[in-house]
């Protein structure tokens, strides 16, 4: 795929993925454009021959020849849409197999900050809505428009050779209609772009109203009516934006339609003059009039429709080109390196970082050293920069100042594949896959699959009794996506997500507050268990609940992007600083907390 795309690129994209069908469709449309002119000429000759036959009995054979040509043309015009549909379906299937995959691969490797950015996510969602259908339809529309131009051009040439001025009038009208339609198309796509923002919000709110994630809160808080109002307002805004653009376009099309019809009728009347002085034969006059009448819907509806759609395609292509211009990191598609490097040390030296487009620093002059085999905890209030540390460590962002060193070597010197193999992370918003329990864990290391490791992780995360209670044991399908699937509690899902990280060969294991579903006591238990399992390995626990970090060798206390205290539990408590204050204020959770 090229970097800059225009409508002409459709002529390259589609044939690139489905050459045979693309050429076939092209040939059909060229014939479809030429046939009406042949039909016009055959009809005019037929009428003139029929008249001369009726006058002096000559030209019988040519009458049959012209009838034969007319029948062939009619048959072609009848078969043409059927053939186009057949081939277009095949073409779309080919695009689905290749173009969509290329696009998905492309998106999978865009730089991480685009994924976290609303605008680029909107762009991606616009481009990826049935891309194969869009590409195939756009291509067909271009060919149809080309066919239509050939059709109009053929009639014009015949007309020009007899009455040149009438041709100029028709060309003028066509140009006017074309311009109005082009503008309408751009406006329509712009409206779609605006409506997209509201549609996304409406879609999200409908998920809140109907999805499973919020089912309990929906019942308890009884907010459905309120959220419904929000949903309706977003939906209505999107609908009104699109409606007003469509109405505007309809009005413009109506005016150009009426104008076209009136002017073409005028031309028909004017052509009586050349008919009278012999510049046009009766046959040609009747055929040209027929063709011009047939042109009315073409000029007033089809041409504007095509041009409007082509203008939309142009906008789509500019989006597609925008997407291709997003900076990529092809390396992200790489699998974790099979050669796992041992992480002896991780060091941050005066690291300062801000997210793209954010006007403040999220990490401010952060320095710390982590050594192999020790347990670390990063604590601090929400938004203090804890998760950002993991994003930098895994190479998702590299635009920081200061130095991040792994084994004394700057992080930039490692490939994405090497970094992936160093860290196993259980994220805050870990995924719940609707596949078997076994695969839910094994997916953590598909590239170096080791069945024994999966069972080891099952034991370590104490999942055996859960598995025994499931109808098909480890092979039970989880979630609620298919019949016979079993859904689990938040805590059980959480243990599975943690087991997924354990099957990896990574030497550093990170738990990034994967505990939203857990009460404080269960969270503490999870962390204790995690540290026990990972004895001898480097672990990093990220949490805003302090009691769970008591066992860590070193605790880093983050506040507003800086490390304000560090040391082990005893040291931090004796400092009487932020940690001990927060610890004491959270103590009540553990007294009143309940088990999972
Ligand atoms: P924590 O993990 O401590 O809750 P984070 O590291 O996730 O905090 O975030 C630190 C700060 O950076 C927060 O103020 C958050 O709003 C901001 N932030 C996080 N991700 C982004 C992003 N992609 N773009 C802009 N700001 C972000």
CATH architecture descriptor of the largest domain: Up-down Bundle
- Span of the ends, CA to CA: 52 Å
Counting structural domains, the number is 2
What is the general shape? elongated
The ordered string of helix (H) and strand (E) elements is HHHHHHHHHHHEEEHEEHEHHHHEHEEEHH
Q: Report the structural category.
A: alpha/beta
| Low confidence ranges | 592-596
Question: What is the fold named in CATH at topology level of the largest domain?
Answer: ABC transporter transmembrane region fold
Ligands bound here? Answer: adenosine-5'-diphosphate
Describe the structure.
This protein is α/β, with parallel strands linked by helices and 596 residues long. The protein folds into two domains: 7-332, ABC transporter type 1, transmembrane domain (ABC transporter transmembrane region fold, Up-down Bundle); 345-589, P-loop containing nucleotide triphosphate hydrolases (Rossmann fold). Helix content is 63%, strand content 10%. The chain has 20 helices and ten strands. It has helices spanning 10-17, 19-56, 60-108, 112-115, 118-127, 131-162, 164-210, 215-221, 224-270, 272-276, 282-325, 386-393, 416-422, 437-442, 451-460, 464-469, 490-502, 520-533, 569-575, 578-592, and strands at residues 345-353, 363-371, 375-380, 401-406, 409-410, 423-426, 508-512, 538-543, 554-559, 562-567. The strands form two sheets. Strands 6-7-8-3-9-10 form a six-stranded mixed sheet, with helices on both faces. A hairpin with a 2-residue loop joins strand 9 (554-559) and strand 10 (562-567). Helix 2 packs antiparallel against helix 11 (282-325). The radius of gyration is 35 Å and the shape is elongated. The two termini are 52 Å apart.
């Amino acid at each position: 795929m090229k970097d800059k795309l225009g409508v002409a690129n459709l002529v390259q994209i589609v044939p690139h993925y489905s050459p045979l069908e693309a050429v076939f469709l092209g040939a059909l449309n060229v014939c479809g454009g030429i046939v009406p002119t042949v039909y016009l000429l055959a009809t005019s000759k037929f009428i003139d021959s029929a008249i001369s036959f009726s006058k002096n009995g000559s030209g019988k054979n040519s009458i049959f020849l012209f009838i034969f040509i007319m029948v062939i043309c009619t048959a072609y015009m009848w078969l043409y849409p059927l053939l186009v549909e057949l081939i277009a379906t095949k073409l779309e299937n080919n695009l689905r197999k290749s173009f969509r995959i290329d696009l998905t691969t492309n998106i999978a490797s865009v730089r991480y900050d685009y994924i976290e950015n609303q605008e680029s996510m909107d762009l991606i969602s616009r481009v990826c809505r049935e891309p194969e259908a869009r590409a195939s339809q756009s291509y067909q529309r271009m060919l149809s428009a080309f066919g239509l131009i050939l059709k109009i051009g053929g009639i014009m040439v015949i007309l020009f050779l007899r009455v040149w001025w009438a041709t100029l009038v028709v060309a003028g009208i066509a140009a006017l209609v074309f311009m109005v339609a082009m503008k309408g198309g751009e406006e329509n796509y712009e409206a779609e772009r605006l409506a997209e923002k509201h549609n996304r919000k409406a879609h999200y709110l409908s998920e809140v109203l109907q999805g499973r994630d919020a089912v309990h809160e929906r019942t308890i808080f009884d907010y459905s009516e309120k959220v419904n109002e929000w949903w309706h307002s977003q939906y209505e805004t999107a609908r009104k934006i699109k409606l007003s653009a469509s109405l505007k376009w309809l009005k413009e099309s109506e005016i150009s339609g009426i104008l076209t019809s009136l002017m073409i009728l005028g031309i028909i009347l004017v052509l009586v003059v050349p008919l009278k002085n012999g510049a046009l034969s009766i046959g040609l006059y009747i055929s040209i009039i027929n063709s011009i009448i047939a042109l009315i819907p073409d000029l007033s509806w089809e041409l504007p429709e095509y041009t409007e759609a082509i203008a939309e395609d142009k906008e789509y292509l500019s989006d597609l080109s925008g997407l291709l211009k997003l900076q990529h990191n092809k390396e992200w598609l790489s699998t974790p390196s099979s050669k796992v490097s041992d992480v002896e040390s991780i060091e941050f030296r005066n690291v300062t970082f801000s997210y793209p487009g954010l006007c403040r620093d999220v990490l401010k002059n952060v320095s710390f050293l982590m050594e192999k085999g020790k347990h670390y905890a990063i604590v601090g209030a929400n938004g203090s920069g804890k998760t950002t540390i993991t994003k930098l460590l895994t190479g998702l962002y590299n635009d920081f100042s200061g130095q991040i060193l792994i084994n004394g070597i700057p992080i930039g010197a490692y490939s994405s594949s090497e970094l992936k193999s160093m860290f196993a992370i259980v994220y805050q918003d870990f995924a719940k896959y609707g596949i078997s329990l076994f695969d839910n864990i094994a997916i953590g290391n598909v590239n170096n699959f080791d069945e024994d490791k999966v069972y080891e992780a099952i034991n370590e995360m104490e999942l055996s009794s859960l598995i025994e209670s499931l109808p098909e044991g480890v092979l039970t399908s989880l979630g609620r996506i298919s019949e016979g699937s079993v859904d689990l509690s938040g805590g059980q899902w959480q243990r599975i997500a943690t087991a997924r990280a354990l099957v990896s060969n990574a030497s550093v294991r990170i738990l990034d507050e994967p505990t939203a579903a857990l009460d404080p006591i269960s969270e503490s238990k999870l962390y204790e268990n995690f540290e026990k399992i990972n004895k001898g390995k480097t672990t990093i626990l990220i949490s805003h609940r302090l009691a769970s970090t008591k066992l860590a060798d070193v605790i880093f206390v983050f506040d507003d992007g800086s490390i304000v205290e560090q040391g082990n539990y005893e040291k931090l408590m004796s400092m009487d600083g932020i940690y001990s204050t927060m610890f004491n204020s959270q103590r009540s959770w553990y007294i009143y907390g309940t088990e999972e």
